[in-house]
Amino acid sequence: MSELPKTFDPASIESRWYAHWEASGQFRPDRPNAEPWTIVNPPPNVTGSLHIGHALDNTLQDILTRHARLKGKDALWVVGTDHAGIATQMVVERQMGAMSPPQKRTDHSREDFIAKVWAWKEESGGEITQQLRRLGCSMDWANERFTMDEGFSKAVLKVFVDLHRQGLLYRDKRLVNWDPGLGTAISDLEVETREIKGSFWHLRYPLADGSGFIEVATTRPETMLADMAVAVNGADERYTALIGKQVKLPITGRLISIIADDHADPELGSGAVKITPGHDFNDFEVGKRAGMAAGAMLNMLDAKARVVQVSDGLIPADLLGLTTAEARKAVVAQLKAEGFLIAHVDKEGVEHDAEPRTIQTPYGDRSGVVIEPWLTDQWYVDAKTLAQPAIEAVRVGAIDIVPKTWEKTFFNWMENIQPWCVSRQLWWGHQIPAWFGPDGTPYVAETEAEAQALAGAGVALVRDPDVLDTWFSSALWPFATMGWPDESDPTLGGRYPNDVLISGFDILFFWNARMMMQGLHFMKDVPFRTLYLHGLVRAADGAKMSKSKGNVVNPLGLIDQYGADALRFFMAAMESQGRDIKMDEKRVEGYRNFATKLWNAARFAQANGIVASTTLEAPRAELAVNKWIIAETIATVQTVDLALADYRFDGAANAIYQFAWSRFCDWYLELIKPQMVGDERGQIDDESKAVAGWVLDQILVLLHPFMPFITEELWHAMADPAHPREHDLIVAQWPMADARSLDPEASREVDWLIRLVQEIRTARNELNVPPGVRLPLHVRDANAATLARLERQAPALARLARLARVTHAEGEVTGGAAQVVVDEATFVLPLEGVIDLDSERARLTKAIAAAEKERDALSGRLGNASFVERAKPEAVEKAKADHADKAAEAARLQAALGRLG
User: What whole-number distance in Å separates Cα of residue 206 and Cα of residue 199?
Assistant: First the structure.
């Protein structure tokens, strides 16, 4: 048994133990006949660094993985990184731009640029994998994957080709989120919406027959250059006679029809809406319903979001080449000059060109430029067809979404799913396995030779330069990481389906749902049995963390200050299903204190000859206190088992915390602590030593998934030199809840003792009895069972409650005294000569009045509807908490005054 240092220092043990676990293969122990248990990590971007969301996500995964390993399962946590097409390409392009002289991607061939990206990846990529190690993640690093490694890339190409052959992947012209800064289509997740102070212009379009005008409004007046219709609601009687007539657009002179469509809301504005199907997602759908083919829709912007000529050639030459901002200014000026702009009159009667509005504007999260809906040819997956089996799997319970409140959102999105754009205009990524012939016909195959065979000998082919969306490849993560398509076993060695997936709710559709679609389609089974969706980690005030707000918390900084164990325990203890987590550094510090408490308990054990247990079963116990702590241990094991089975991470963490801190450290160790014999402390009896060693072992095993580092250190530190540990804690055996060890009567007796001590301590504290004074205790109305308990527990009661003696009394005690009632008995503490009773009554009366005054003031504030409605939510919550505190304080002081009689 190595003697523990006086001070717990997380940094000194974390790197040592992690290196030991990894080097000795403990993250994937050899268990050929054990039940497989599998989880895959959401692959972080290879460019990424650990943020607080990663810390939460991976802590929860590691808890489940370590728990499964302790349960004897062949636990596998698949680890890898995503090639992150846009992010990685941007990193390398920035590095090239910083060279002297600066370089651009297009200065190099595609092959040379990709070689530079691979070189960057080998040299600088994967920083986050080292940071995950600091968090304590017990991942299978020996088999780390990358979404562009050879085996995974083979799977990606096969999926693309197979889907195309099955008619589930096709090329189409549709609107996409186009990032003019990056020159590529992007996913919805890569679009961030910002509130921008913008304008709302009202225009009047002349009817072609000269009979009048129809009024429309827009936040993007430049798009009128590509208008193809004006929509009104068919039920709007104001426009019934106009449906089918034509409008002659200002500036271009284009004739467009007035059509009926429910997209037009009679209650909004004029009830008429300009339709630009090539530059607005809603308008695109209106155009399709009106019979407009996508290929015929007008596209007035190029890839850099500059105005280009449309197919009918009607955009004036002086507008070509302008940016959208320049075009907007020019179009508004011409509309005004020609009398087609309706002025906005403010409340002072002053005219303006437009009405000021706050506009929700989409921006590229990486480029920082305005995203344009852009009509372009891309590759699409028939998501609607693939979604049906996934919807059914959730409906019948083949996939259990936890918490279930997310099911409604899942069904709503899946049942209204749109085609999935899977192509990106980048160089870094899985290049699309399609080759185009001279007439534009695509030939899709896994190799160029196969494509040539499809096209025919002598047909010149050019490969599609685009790459696949990274979500397309990561959707294969649960099975392509396990050897598919080379592995013929449909269960992939018992690893498919995975047991559980832990994910943030924000990628439910971008990743989770797509894994369901691809897994069910290619593996004919669900990718995971359970999908656990956690919330966000927010700032302390509940605001979303962002760099612009300056409220981002660095998890590595917290690890440096408090240790990985404290941060992990905070994440688990605060993870309540369906709720976001408010970052609270004080709580992290509190869990560091919890680790220190456990450290000191182990040091106490060492100092008193308590060593690790040599048995899995509880030792034989005769003393009530030992029977009680064994029962408490078993109850805690049961609680933790149930909580983890239900993915109640907070319930499991808090059960361990309360047991280890309160029951074991604060009560059990105090109850078995030997009394002083003269100037020397006595010895703990052998039975209690054995039980204490066993209980501490159970605590270490239960706590290990949450706090792996300190528990492994104490596991070995507590070993008897004559009986060293046969294995590390990481591969130990999970405790068994053996009800045969329970003794209800012993548990009741010790619970009674604890309640009595707490009542006496509370009375002493509230009545300002000096800590060093030992009081006599008189008991009245006690039955035989209580008297027997008093006799058995007299030494512990005297020591813990600081009593001089315990006597049985009948009748009233003369003089001032405090009384506490526990069950049927009344316990009297004589206070004559110990405190000034009159002064104490006066002090309590004054304190009660002050507490009640504050309580009532807060009650009045909370009863004021104006305060509750107008105050910030956090101010209302604080007032409620303060009111509860003052009410409790007043009640406590009243009880103390009542004790004096």
Answer: 23
Q: Which of 421, 445, 430 is nearest to 158 (CA)?
A: 445
Mean pLDDT of 150-170: 97
Residues in the chain: 901
Give the pLDDT confidence of 708-717 residue by residue, as tens digits: 999 999 999 9
Supply φ then ψ for residue 554, to 5 degrees: -90, 115
Give 215's contacts (C-beta < 8 A, 6+ positions apart): 202, 203, 204, 205, 269, 270, 272, 342
pTM for the predicted model, two decimal places? 0.88
The answer to whether the beta carbons of residues 653 and 734 sit under 8 Å apart is no
Average the pLDDT over each of 415-429, 520-534, 551-565, 759-773 and give the range with the smallest value: 759-773
Helices 406-415, 513-523: axis angle to 10 degrees equals: 70
Question: What's the rounded Cα separation, in Å, for the pair 63 and 729?
Answer: 14
* Close Cβ partners of 524 (under 8 Å, ≥ 6 residues apart): 490
Pick the closest to residue 77 from 27, 139, 141 (CA basis).
139
Give, rounded to a whole angstrom, the gap between the first and last alpha carbons of the chain: 55
Contact in structure between 668 and 603 (CB atoms under 8 Å): no
CA angle centred on 856, ends 851 and 862, rounded to 5°: 130
Nearest to residue 22, comparing CAs of 855, 803, 708? 708
Longest Cα–Cα distance of the chain, Å, equals 117
Written as one letter, the residue type at 397 is: G
Q: Is 498 helix (H, G, I), strand (E, B) or coil?
A: strand
What does the DSSP 8-state code read for residue 723? B
Provide mean pLDDT across the span 543-570. Answer: 90
* 203 within 8 A of 340, measured Cβ to Cβ: yes
**Between β-strands 817-822 and 825-830, what pairing exists: parallel, antiparallel or unpaired?**
antiparallel
Show the DSSP H helices in 624-685 as ranges: 624-645, 649-657, 669-672
3-class DSSP state for residue 535? coil
- Main-chain phi, psi angles of 155, to 5 degrees: -65, -40
